[in-house]
Amino acid sequence: MAAPAHTIITFNNVVKQFGRFIALRGVSLDLSAGKLYAILGENGAGKTTLLRVLAGLAQPTRGTVSMLGTSDLRTVTREIGYMAHPSMLYDELSARENLHYFAALYGISKEDRCASLIQTVGLDPALSRPVGQYSQGMRQRLSLARALIHDPKILLLDEPFSNVDVRSAREIASLLGQLRDSGKTLLVITHQSDLLAEVANDQVWMERGRIVTPEERE
Amino acid sequence: MSVLRLTTATLAKDFRLEWRSKDALNSMLFFALLVVVIFSFSFDPNAEESRRIAGGLVWVAFLFSSVVALNQTWAREVRNQVLDAYRISPAPSNALFLAKVIGNFLFVALIELLTTPLFIAFYKLRAVGPAWQLFPVAALGTWALVVNGTFFAAVSIRTRSREIMLPLLLFPISIPAIIAMVSATTAILTAEYSARFWIVLLLTYDVIFTVACLLLFETVLNAE
């Protein structure tokens, strides 16, 4: 079946093997632009590997992934924002110093961009203490700001609500909804699907490296 | 995207991190001082003997203490998976490598500046040959250590015992450079032969390995 016209990401029979362990077993999937997808499944289902393949951090053993019309993902890195389970931040630097450095990696040198992003995720731009002294919730927010620094079209978020209190988690979920509404495509791995219930357009369930339908799960 | 601008940004970030943690500098300085003191207790040479063995002692001390800094280089980037943020960005990998090499070069050079007066005092050193040649030997020798060291520290970054893996990879490949550094230093201190050949050898070694490391670094960085 031909993919819909507005498809932005296509997995075509993707297999990813780590030695003898098969993390992805022939994943085929079409994802549309401007939607928020909740990626759900138990630990070890292959969710993180799926995002790492998309981010270009892991190469598929077999099969192809195309994004924004190209299968050479290195050429579209500017359009991807990736938030991993670890913070991907320097503990010794402040929020602003961290964002300045990551902005420089994308050739962005605007001071106000960093400050406004820190505010967008609900942190204080004047906060000068190092990230190592932040709570887990504050780190998650800053990590999200880092992923957004270059205004990417596609956001890949790996468990943005983990170890975050309920109020902060709801605020982050609401922010994800706003990002979706602004036209971005989001893939969000979570074990707390209820948090995304109001903002997710679709759910992708994974089990042992495969995409499963609701019928298959039952 | 400018390699120079990114190298500068990464270098500034690394200096800030080191200024706040002082992980590498403190351990390097402590290690180098320890070597100076232990060697001075172990040997009691006269001035002539000192000139013959000082080249070897100095460079062995710098080699071992530089390994401490080199191990720290990538440890920071692996913590919290920060290196992945660099990998998924459009920033050229060579900017990261160059920043790490220059940073390590400056850290090791600082330790050399601080410990060399102690070597001179403990071993009553005085160069018989042209002392100014010690500067190019120190610069080229230090570059040889850090360019390979930074590269092999990146190679061993994902291994379980990277502290052991780095010397195992670095020391054998550094043998030609170490021979050249020690021979050049001894030549300058004793004036028994010219250091010119060894300086040219060091320069050639530096050029070859800098180019090779720059060409191979992207593959190492993106290895899974």
Structural commentary:
- The complex is a heterodimer of chains A (218) and B (224).
- With 218 residues, chain A is of the alpha/beta class.
- Chain A contains 7 helices and 9 strands, in the order E-E-E-H-E-E-H-H-H-E-H-E-H-E-E-H.
- In chain A, a hairpin with a 2-residue loop joins strand 8 and strand 9.
- The N terminus of chain A is likely disordered.
- Chain B has one domain.
- In chain B, helix 2 runs antiparallel to helix 3, helix 3 runs antiparallel to helix 5 and helix 5 packs across helix 6.
- Chain B is globular, with a radius of gyration of 18 Å.
- Chain B starts with a helix and ends with a helix.
- In chain B, 46% of the residues are buried.
- The mean pLDDT of chain B is 91.
- Classes of the chains: A alpha/beta (218), B mainly alpha (224).
- The interface between A and B is medium-sized, with 27 and 24 residues.
